[in-house]
Amino acid sequence: MNMLYSHRQANPFLWAVISLGMVGAIIAVLLDHKPWLILPIVAVFGVMLLLFSALTIEVSGYHLRFWYGVGIIRWTIPLGEIERVARSRSSWYEGWGIRLTLRGWLYNLSGLDCIEIQRSNGRSFRLGTPEPDRLINVLHTALATRRPAPPAA
Predict the structure, then answer these.
(1) pTM for the complete prediction?
(2) What is the separation of C-alpha 101 from the centre of its chain, rounded to a whole number of angstroms?
(3) What is the pLDDT of residue 117?
(4) Which residue has the higher pLDDT, 38 or 118?
(5) Contact 29, 42 (CB under 8 A)
(6) By the 8 A CB rule, do 18 and 49 touch?
(7) What CA–CA distance (Å, rounded) separates 38 from 106?
(8) Which of left, alpha, beta for 71 (phi over 0: left; psi -120 to 50: alpha)?
(9) For residue 53, which phi and psi values (nearest 5 degrees)?
(10) Can you give the chain as a three-state secondary structure string?
(11) Exposed/middle/buried for 29, CB within 10 Å: 0-12, 13-18, 19+?
């Protein structure tokens, strides 16, 4: 596959919050003399880290793909469905993560910089990135030279 762009962003603050939450929960469980709760607590916090520890964005000649963590939560948008790409900014109160906002869905891991993508179905979404200008340039180039997606194998 012809990869034009690939960027994986992590959020050290998120790692710290989840890790501190896990340690705090373990201490509370030990103080309450219920050590059998440690394994479920570690499992829940571990799954949170696996699912939301990073946001990866890729652009190929055919698709825009993005996913959280190890890739269980993922989206693929064919370039043919993208009408417009523009720089945007999220508000502090819209937060991080996956959110439905007044301007459509927001997929953000950290920071306020994002790009807004208008789809051919009229819906739009925003995708958080620390390098919005580079991603916009790559998408504009890919959209100008887009090809139909190859047939599924």
Answers:
(1) 0.82
(2) 15
(3) 97
(4) 118
(5) no
(6) yes
(7) 34
(8) left
(9) -75, -20
(10) CCEEEEEEEECHHHHHHHHHHHHHHHHHHHHCCCHHHHHHHHHHHHHHHHHHCEEEEEEECCEEEEEECCCCEEEEEEHHHEEEEEEEECCHHHCCEEEEECCEEEEECCCCEEEEEEECCCCEEEEECCCHHHHHHHHHHHHHCCCCCCCCC
(11) middle
**Identity at 5, one-letter amino acid code:** Y
CB 127 within 8 A of CB 147: no
Tokens read off for 99: 């959110």
How confident is the model at residue 78, as a pLDDT? 94
* Per-residue tokens: 117: 């993508």
Evaluated on CA atoms 68, 96, 90, 125, the torsion sign reads positive
- What the block records as the tokens of 21 is 């939450």
The CA distance from 55 to 19, in Å, is 18
Q: By the 8 A CB rule, do 59 and 40 touch?
A: no
Q: Distance between alpha carbon 31 and the CA centroid of its chain, in Å? A: 36
